Structure of SET domain-containing protein:
Amino acid sequence: MQAMVVIPSNGHARRRVLVDRVHSIVSNRAQNGDEQYLVRWTTDRVTNKPPLSWHSIKELVRCLEHVQDYLEVREKAKITVSVTQGNKKRKIPDSGLECEERHPSPFERNLHQQNETPSVSRSPSVSSAPPSTSVDVFNSVLDADEHGHIFCRNHPSADAPQLDLDTVHKMNRLAHLDSVDKALTYIRNEYVQRLAKVPGTDKKPIHLVNLQDKSTPSLRFRFISGYVLDEERGVYRASTETQEGCTCLPNMGRHIGCEYTKKCDCLEYATVDDSRLDEAGKEAYAEALANGESTMGFPKKFPYWAEGTKREITGCLVPFYLNSRRPIYECNDNCHCGPFCRNKNVQFGRQVEVEIFRTKGGRGWGLRCKENVREGQFIDTYRGEVITDAEATRREKASSKAKASYLYSLDKFAESENIAEESLYVVDGEFMGGPTKFMNHSCEPNCRQYTVSYNRHDPKVYDIAFFACRFIPKGEELTFDYLDKDDGEPMDEPGEDAIPCLCGAPKCRRWLWT
Ligand SMILES: C[S@@+](CC[C@H](N)C(=O)[O-])C[C@H]1O[C@@H](n2cnc3c(N)ncnc32)[C@H](O)[C@@H]1O
């Protein structure tokens, strides 16, 4: 049962604004040394006077995504204002309205500079509530439930002070003068806390550093450790029955088990190692290829350096794979070879301590390593929602070309398996994914993306794994070539809305996307 209570606007530390009912944050102000934000509550009415109330940042700890959205709009509006000063026209944040330069009215000033005694929202059900001239709650009244969750009633109150959204947008000119540092710190701390909960961070942490400005990556992003398939729109993996495991046994030693590549079923589609074929073997292989037959029984290229080679390169990609675009087929959970099989690597996840950092050159956030990385060492996979091609096109159209793109097509086997473009899947790492979301493009990259499959019979869902293509010293930014171009391969002619590349490499192709 929810209790009708009077809620001090900067009340008890445990009181929290109920995030499910919040529409957005629409303003900010400084109040008695505290930072406050104007919450616009959801309502089923179409109105220019929705429920609004001021809250201390402490009460907004469950709504920091909304606060961050507001601060982003506010920051952009600040830039717009400074760019357009001089022609006396201003773009107003959020509303898209333009207004002539004007001075705030005394009412607006009052809204922003109130510093009277603790203000109180009025509830008709609380008869003892003192009459108040407070303007902390507008167009409605606040309630709280027994858990201290504050929410606004979903019907108008003629009793409450009135405030419309146009006035809020106009008074936001003053909001730009007030500090939002506390909110920025809360947002950053929240992000850091979330980073600490990402699976695998106990062994290999993910850090966050920003020496450029006070921003934090979006809190709307969710860290995930595996793909999230959009099953509602028909995205599925091939059935698990097709995910046959191999019959190699564990701990059989070098050149036995999966490394005895003639026998490992998982390597059926891996590249044949023709350097290990004698004349008769070469002939048989040519015949198998000509007849489109399975190459099972021929020795295959094993993807990783195995034990017995130098300890420091064990587990790294061998040059054959490193320098080619060949898919890597790893063993899977149905295999008999067990967890220590040397053909299992990427599936265990990130092995490198990384840092998300704000880049200097206008490329937003980037990712760098906190330890030296060896040539051929696995770094991490790209994660996200797996969506249909149609859904990816819809999302792409809905956002501008200049906006950061996080879409990654799973088209490796399209040609060989004759999969039509519209049947392909796409990984979208914008709203959920891993730290590789922050890897920027370079025309001379230090990492490269590889296809890693755990089910050779599923050409539509596989992992995209990043490996170092050369030694990367600790602290260097991790980059890959978004277009996966070969050295010297030219770009298409840039169109009108082509995006310039800011990688700064000597051999930069100049365009990120043409
Ligand atoms: C996958 S995101 C990389 C992370 C991104 N920097 C961020 O802050 O979230 C890709 C976007 O980063 C930016 N970007 C990456 N590499 C770039 C480059 N070399 N030049 C310009 N922008 C780049 C572009 O906006 C691109 O759409």
User: Anything to note?
Assistant: The pocket of S-adenosylmethionine is lined by residues 363-365, 404-406, 437-438, 440-441, 501-503, 512 (CB under 6 Å). The longest helix spans residues 64-84. The chain has two domains: 16-190, 202-489. Confidence is low (pLDDT under 50) at residues 1-12, 83-107, 114-134.
